[in-house]
Design a protein that fits this description.
alpha+beta; Structural Genomics Hypothetical 15.5 Kd Protein In mrcA-pckA Intergenic Region, Chain A; Alpha-Beta Plaits; four-stranded antiparallel beta sheet; 13 strands
Length: 242
C-alpha cells in the first residue's frame, strides 16, 4: 500500500493532506525519515509520525455496546450514529456495522472491515443465532414458547422457529430470552406483538458464539481479541445450511 493512502485510511487527513504530512518530513519508516509520498509499504514496516509510533492496522473488528437512541448507520445528517461513538480511524478504514440494531434497541453490535465475514454472519441460511433479552408488558406462558418454536406468521413473512425462554412472568410484565436466526426489521418486537405483547425494552446479548462483554457500558467499545475473532470465523465457515 502507498504511504499516503495508508495515512488517509488511518484518519490522518485526506490524500492530499497525507501527502503534505509526508513531504514535511513528519513520517519515519523503519527509523528513516520518508518524504516520498509514493513509497510502497511492506508488511511489518514500522511507521512513526512526529516521533510517535502509528498503529497501522487497516483491518478492524469491534464490539460495541450500542445504546438506545443511536442509529445503526455509517452517517446521518440529523441523528447520532454508531460510528459517531468510535474514533475517526474506524470510519476511515471502512469499519462498518454488521447488520443492524433498531434505534430503540441496545446491546451487542459488531463492526468490521471484513465484508465477507459480515455477509456470512447475516445470511439466514447459516442460522447464526442471536440472543435478545426482552421485557414485555404482560405475562408469557408455555403457549408462547410453543408458538415461537413453531414459527410465527407475520403480515409479510413467517418467522423461522425461535427459542423463547421465560425468565420471569407476572400479570404486569415478563422478562424472556429469545434466540432467532434471522434479522428482519423489528422482527423480535413483531413476534411478541403477534402474541399480544408489546416489547418495552430489548437488548441483544450475543451473536453466535460472541457475547456482549459485561464490563462494557452503553456507548463503550473494544476491539475483538484474536480468539474471539476466530470463534466468529469458525461459526461461519463451511457451506451454508439449506
Amino acid at each position: 500500500m502507498r504511504l499516503d493512502r495508508l495515512l488517509s485510511l488511518l484518519a490522518l487527513g485526506t490524500r492530499s493532506q497525507a501527502r503534505e504530512i509526508v513531504k514535511g518530513g513528519r513520517i519515519a519508516v523503519n527509523g528513516q525519515t520518508e518524504r516520498n509520498v509514493d513509497r510502497r509499504l511492506n508488511k511489518g514496516d514500522q511507521i512513526v509520525l512526529d516521533g510517535q509510533p502509528l498503529d497501522a492496522r487497516t483491518v478492524r473488528h469491534v464490539m460495541l455496546y450500542k445504546p438506545c437512541g443511536v442509529l445503526t448507520a455509517a452517517m446521518d445528517k440529523k441523528q447520532k450514529t454508531v460510528l459517531d461513538l468510535l474514533p475517526p480511524v474506524y470510519k476511515a478504514c471502512g469499519c462498518m456495522p454488521v447488520g443492524r440494531l433498531d434505534k430503540d434497541t441496545e446491546g451487542l453490535l459488531l463492526l468490521s472491515t471484513d465484508g465477507e465475514m459480515a455477509h456470512r454472519l447475516l445470511s439466514p441460511k447459516r442460522h447464526v443465532q442471536k440472543c435478545y433479552r426482552a421485557e414485555v408488558d404482560g405475562p408469557l406462558n408455555d403457549a408462547d414458547i410453543a408458538a415461537f418454536r413453531q414459527g410465527l406468521a407475520l403480515s409479510d413473512f413467517t418467522a423461522q422457529p425461535a427459542k423463547l425462554e421465560i425468565l420471569s412472568s407476572c400479570a404486569e410484565k415478563a422478562v424472556a430470552l429469545v434466540w432467532v436466526g434471522e434479522g428482519k426489521y423489528h422482527q423480535v418486537r413483531r413476534m411478541f406483538a403477534a402474541r399480544g405483547r408489546t416489547v418495552k425494552a430489548l437488548k441483544r446479548l450475543s451473536i453466535g458464539p460472541l457475547a456482549l462483554d459485561e464490563s462494557l457500558h452503553p456507548g463503550e467499545y473494544r476491539e475483538l481479541e484474536p480468539q474471539k475473532l476466530q470463534m466468529l470465523l469458525s461459526a461461519v465457515s463451511g457451506e451454508e445450511n439449506p
